[in-house]
# Entry
Amino acid sequence: MKRIKSRIISNKPLSPDLFLLTFTSSGVENEVLPGNFINIEVTKSLDPFLRRPFSIFDVSEGTISVLYRVIGRGTEIMKELKPDKQIDFIGPLGNSYPISESDNFTFVAGGTGIASIHYLLKTVESSYPNSTKTLYWGAKNRYDFVLRNEIEDLCTDVLYTTEKGDLGNKGFVTDFIDIKNKTTIYACGPTPMLKSLHDKTEGILSYYSFEERMACGVGVCLGCAIMTKSGKYKYVCKDGPVFRGDEIF
# Structure
């Protein structure tokens, strides 16, 4: 974990409320693992006071990218950030998805959960190019399916689900999960989605990245506690964000 003063390369709108922010990695790109996140200082003022956590969407030589949705004061400020401006982030933070050699991988992304899944897909495709990689991707509407061509190139198959039914199946992504072969499941999305996924696939090895509100990002404030199946609390920022599904549900 390092505090880095970086330079913004681009801040591209991908849909009415989704943006891809890319900035120089200042040498930490080799430390990033799939599932890690960073904490970004969105302004030097006290409003908002806290940094904002974002999954690392992509890492390329010399750059890091995060995918974010404009939903509040912090991200409203972020969407106005311009190229060549300085940005201050702490990271990489958190643990990562365990990846073992396999012929078959299953990925499930709900909404902006694709931000965590994308770099995992890229890593698996690089390490196991001949494996089957199935992505179940759910969203509220078709506008949330950003960078589709890039993501489809990393997968054997992509199955889309929207709540409105304007692309792919209509309903929730977990309504259409159909796993017949031995696989490992990797998922990121809202907790109710993860719970539903686990109920449908219990007994299959799974790793879930949890989306919880965070303040410090390093386990000091204890604001992102979740209860495990054993009744003990763990902290998404420090112990996670990735947990085995059967540890939580």
Q: What stands out?
A: The two ends are 29 Å apart (CA to CA).
